[in-house]
Amino acid sequence: MLCAFLLGIANTHAANLPQQTEGDDITLSVGYNDTKKGNLHPRTQMRRPVINVSSDLITVPESLIGYEMRIVSDGEVIFSTTVTTTEIFLPTPLTEGYYQIQFVGEAYTFYGEFELS
């Protein structure tokens, strides 16, 4: 159910996200997952992570280590892994097209959209 919710976040907000192309830095948007933690507030200011995407490599900041990364195409998760390093090599290069990327943690989800051409 959480996966469907998160896919909904990405699909709902996709029209509002800036289009990024291969090799561009992508500043991710943030979603708040857990309203039960007393010391976290959905309006808390935070630095949004910046990532870089190519067809077979995604470079992320250390702050995303431990998050689950998902790549979504046409509403379907096509790749998922736990981030353990700042360079994530994809087992199969992505083809041309539009993609959404999500980094899912306990309290926050960071997400964005990019295009490979």
Features:
single chain; 117 residues; mainly beta; five-stranded antiparallel beta sheet; four-stranded antiparallel beta sheet; 9 strands; globular; disordered N terminus
Helical segment tally?
A: 1
Task: Please give the alpha-carbon distance between the first and last residues.
Answer: 32 Å
Task: Determine the strand fraction and express it as a percent band.
Answer: 35-45%
Low-confidence stretches: 1-7
What structural class results from the helix and strand content?
A: mainly beta
- DSSP strand tally: 9
Helix content range of the residues, please? Answer: 10-25%
C-alpha Rg (nearest Å): 14 Å
Could you give a short account of the major beta sheet?
5 strands, antiparallel
Mean pLDDT: 80
Based on CA inertia axes, which overall geometry fits?
globular
Strand order of the main beta sheet, please?
Answer: 2-9-8-5-6
- H-E string: HEEEEEEEEE
Itemize the secondary structure elements and their pairings.
Blueprint (H helix, E strand, L loop, with lengths): L1 H12 L11 E3 L1 E4 L17 E4 L3 E3 L8 E6 L2 E7 L4 E3 L7 E8 L3 E9 L1
